[in-house]
Amino acid sequence: MIEFTVVIPARYASVRLPGKPLRDIAGKPMIEHVYLRAKESAARGVVIATDDERIATTAAAFGAAVCMTGDQHVSGSERIAEVCDLMAWPDDAIVVNLQGDEPAMPAKLIDQCANLLADNDADIATLASPMASQEDFDNPNVVKVVVDGNGDALYFSRASIPYARQDLHKDRALRTALHHHGVYGYRCGVLRRLVIAKPSDLEICEQLEQLRALTLGMTIRVGIANERPGAGVDTEEDLARAAANLSA
Predict the structure, then answer these.
(1) FRET partner for 51 with CA separation of 20 to 30 A, picked from 14, 73, 169, 187?
(2) Domains and CATH numbers, the chain
(3) Helix, strand, or coil (residue 72)
(4) pLDDT single digits (tens) 97-148
(5) What is the mean pLDDT of the chain?
(6) Does residue 248 register a pLDDT over 70?
(7) Contacts of 230 (CB under 8 A, 6+ apart)
(8) How many CB atoms lie within 10 A of CB 216?
(9) First to last CA, the chain
(10) Contact 146/178 with Cβ under 8 angstroms?
């Protein structure tokens, strides 16, 4: 089992769900559920990274290690890169970015993501699942990824890729596309390179940060998730769904 640390970036501001990390799910703030999933993994440590004192106070109350970061970050990757520097972690240290709105991410998938970096031939690791439905394939809020023969990402998109030019190939397109999940593994050195680079045009168009890595020529290894994780939380409807699932 590879050694790694989980960092959970958490910010208070959210356009669609203000105060998202502190919203209640089954009697606990969402950030605590995410933290508990991380603690169930094989990580040697779990750190919550935030610039908000309300989140920091809540996290400390349930026993989490907290790293206070600057408030200038526009992405979780930037926030985690600052944690790497503040903690003086070496370039070869492995960090898993578990986003603060993933309360139903199984711990074994966190381990699976980290272990994709064990062979040392990929810059970044992430997970995906087969597309569950045509509705998901057509949904721009479901990020799609297509991979090469080695399982490395060719492209990520909110669009329905690959596009079936002929109707008889629609089933093939649905089988080829993968539903990307919001968990990433990096070595700190890769993360440092990533965040000092300017956003690429592809990233700006799709609003998908992983396209910056592909533009830089980085290899993103995509593992097929051993089980499909529960959905992340972006809206009030997602919050209600997560509460129902975690209360069951």
Answers:
(1) 187
(2) 5-247 (3.90.550.10)
(3) coil
(4) 998 888 989 999 999 999 999 988 899 999 999 999 999 999 998 999 999 9
(5) 92
(6) no
(7) 103, 104, 105, 242, 245
(8) 13
(9) 31
(10) yes
Phi-psi category of residue 242: left, alpha or beta, with phi > 0 → left and psi -120 to 50 → alpha:
alpha
Measured CA to CA, the distance from residue 95 to residue 80 in angstroms comes to 9
* Residue in this structure with the two tokens 């969402």, named with its chain if needed: 30
pLDDT in tens, 158-198: 999 999 999 889 999 999 999 999 899 999 999 999 999 99
Distance CA 5, CA 186 (A): 10
Closest CA to 241 of 101, 110, 131, 142: 101
**27 φ/ψ sector (left φ>0, alpha ψ -120 to 50, else beta):** left
Query: Which of 1, 69, 61 lies closest to 35, judged by CA?
Result: 61
- One-letter amino acid at 155 equals Y
**162 preceded by cis ω (within 30°)?**
yes
Tokens representing residue 30 in the block: 């969402």
